[in-house]
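Example record for the data management plan.
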Amino acid sequence: MSPYVSLVVLLLGCCTISRAQRQLPTVPELDVAAYLGRWYQMYANIFSYATFERNGVCIQATYGDKGGGVISVWNTQRLFEPDGDLDALKGVAYQSDPDNSPGILSVGFPNLGGGAAPYWIAKLGPKLTGSDGVDRYEYSIVTDNVSLYLYVLARDPDRYRINYDSEVQEWLSTNGFTGVNAPIETLHVPECIYV
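Corresponding structural encoding:
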């Protein structure tokens, strides 16, 4: 990333933090088993796309149970095009206080260095039972402790667009994800090569 892009992202982030100076509440309950599995990223914001997901399309996250309260994280994306080079990142997540703050997690990616980052689940969609008999949340809105980053995850892109997108867009607007912090749609097309 060029130093100029980094500076712009940093300055915009500072402005957003100054503007917001608030923490969104997180979900009061989280069924971790219903959160595991594959997610498709439907939206992120400029801060995500300018840093972790630069040039990414067809973005997915897969969460698994590593035991002992640790969740495996495997983020994948194609670079530039739906059949572009695969870019993948492995990490772990955990709840710091599952009894009192179940929607507040920390996620770390050892390959990136640094410590764990806040992963706050601000809203969850309904649970649906899949063909495998497992209940899973239909969508998740994820941010951090200062609402700088934004990720909207869904189990199925088409089902999400039909059933939940307008509800999520309204929630995002009401909760300050507008202007420079507005959601940007992630490309998911039939040509995407998923892993």
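Summary line stored alongside the record: The CA atoms of residues 100 and 167 lie 27 Å apart.
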